[in-house]
Design goal:
This protein is an alpha/beta fold. Helices cover 29% and strands 28% of the residues. The protein binds zinc ion. It holds the Pfam family Peptidase_M14.
């Protein structure tokens, strides 16, 4: 082939592939969506562990375009409500927090309700497109008891998402009844997933995961599931503009007891959204915004039926989720143990531990060995460093006030990772300093082994470079005092 012919055929190839894959089927006006979020964000919520009593007024006292109806009560007699708006013929049901400790989407639904209630502004076109074409029904907080206990399950210890068929819990019955009486064309099943999910073979967290759940073991695609997949392609397109490479596809293995799978089977095109992790967003306020934007965009795609233009193949190109993230990955560090010195990787996860009023973090060693298939939210190449044990400062501190930024920095640099305090006057047993605080009798274990709390130093030549305190990595050159979630032992 001569050069001109090659050029021509390449040109034709690119033209045809462009034709098959329009970049945007639906106009994505992210700037407008973001503006809408900033204006209509529910300001009374700014963290994710809110209680039922703190927010239920946002549901039952809501007047105006929403018709609010109590549709049942939880095991512990908390009312569950549905809120309906819109005059359209296409019915959409969105429900959240079926798992009590998964509240990200609930926040976004409050934001969405505020948005839909607005009027006479630059968002009227979007809003009326939704309200004229759709009937939107929202059930926020399907599991109020689990929410207050901050657990996944309900007060009977039942996982509602494995109770879609057995219906042994009142909350599952409420949700099933809500579907049967409304028979929505589309359903949004809103959850949170572990922050350790990453996008397959990348170091990026699966900040949002999506799925059109299967309706049978063969994971076949029928018209109902196809529509959910098409909406998801559009949502992914919008999300990629905000969090490129951070959307994963959840495993579609059929779970015959789950609500999403059964909604799909019962004829509702069902879209699962899982909120995962995002660096520097422990309270998931950025992810809440992503939920708002993705759901709003999806409602528009459904309202004008433009989702139908998406080609199914594009659903399968959304990368899969994997579970390979850790909070901190220390690579190729020298360790001394059992009289041996060896180089290896240490992986650390900081798990949340609940107290009755708050939570703290337990940063523990999750794995030791060749961790080259894992990724870290924070990673450090420790090829020229070794692990050094830390010390407990021998003199008691009178109280917490003596632990200033300067003093803590000095102590860390001198190789102390814990202090003992005589009088702990803070109301709770929590603190925010990057040092372990012990009461007078507590003995701190400093062994490097699986499951142990990660407390040690990283040393280069004869110089301490980093402290690892309760799994947090602290650069000793500039010790920051950022909001550590620590417990006084
Ligand atoms: Zn869940």
């Amino acid at each position: 082939m001569n050069k001109a012919l090659i050029r021509l055929s390449l040109l034709l190839f690119f033209m045809s592939s462009c034709e098959n894959k329009p970049e945007t089927v639906h106009q994505i006006d992210l700037e407008l969506y973001q503006k809408a979020y900033d204006i209509f964000k529910e300001q009374s919520i700014d963290s994710r562990r809110f209680k039922y009593d703190e927010v239920i007024h946002l549901v039952k006292d809501r007047k105006g375009i929403f018709e609010t109806v109590e549709i049942g009560q939880s095991v512990q007699k908390k009312a569950v409500y549905q809120m309906t708006t819109g005059k359209g013929s296409t019915k959409v049901l969105l429900w959240s927090q079926m798992h009590g400790n998964e509240s990200t989407a609930t926040m976004a639904l409050f934001d969405l309700m505020n948005f839909l209630e607005g009027s006479a502004d630059e968002f009227d076109t979007i809003r009326s497109k939704i309200l004229q074409n759709l009937q939107v029904r929202i059930i926020p907080m399907v599991n109020p008891d689990g929410m207050d206990l901050w657990i996944r399950r309900n007060a009977l210890s039942i996982d509602l998402n494995r109770d879609a068929v057995a219906l042994s819990s009142p909350e599952a019955k409420i949700l099933k009844q809500a579907r049967d009486s409304f028979e929505p064309a589309f359903g949004f099943n809103l959850h949170d997933q572990q922050t350790y999910y990453n996008v397959n073979q990348t170091n990026k967290p699966a900040t949002i995961s999506v799925l059109a759940p299967a309706f049978n073991y063969q994971t076949e695609v029928n018209e109902v599931r196809k529509k959910a997949m098409q909406v998801i392609i559009g949502m992914d397109e919008a999300l990629q503009k905000m969090i490129p490479g951070q959307v994963g596809k959840y495993n579609d293995a059929f779970e015959p007891r789950a609500f999403g799978d059964n909604f799909q089977k019962w004829g509702t095109s069902t879209i699962l959204i899982e909120s995962g992790g995002l660096i520097n967003d422990p309270e998931k306020q950025e992810i809440r915004k992503l939920n708002f934007l993705a759901i709003l965009h999806a409602l528009l795609l459904i309202a004008d039926e433009s989702y139908r233009d998406y080609v199914l193949d594009d659903y399968y190109t959304i990368p899969d989720n994997d579970l390979k993230l850790m909070d901190l990955l220390i690579k190729n560090i020298a360790l001394e143990k059992e009289g041996m010195t060896y180089r290896t990787d240490i992986g650390i996860k900081r798990r949340e531990v609940d107290t009755s009023y708050d939570y703290y973090v337990n940063g523990a060693i999750d794995d030791i060995g060749d961790l080259s298939v894992f990724y870290g939210y924070e990673e450090i190449d420790a090829t020229d460093m070794k692990v050094v044990e830390g010390k407990v400062f021998p003199t008691y501190f009178e109280n917490m006030d003596n632990l200033t930024h300067e003093r803590v920095t000095e102590l860390l640099r001198a190789g102390y990772l814990a202090v003992k305090v005589k009088h702990v006057t803070t109301e709770s047993s929590l603190h925010k300093l990057p040092i372990q605080v012990l009461n007078q009798t507590y003995e701190l274990a400093t062994n490097i082994s699986l499951g142990a709390t990660a407390n040690f130093f990283l040393q280069k030549d004869d110089q301490l470079k980093y402290a690892v305190i309760n799994g947090y990595l602290i650069n000793l050159e500039s010790v920051s005092m950022n909001d550590f979630k620590m417990k006084i032992y």
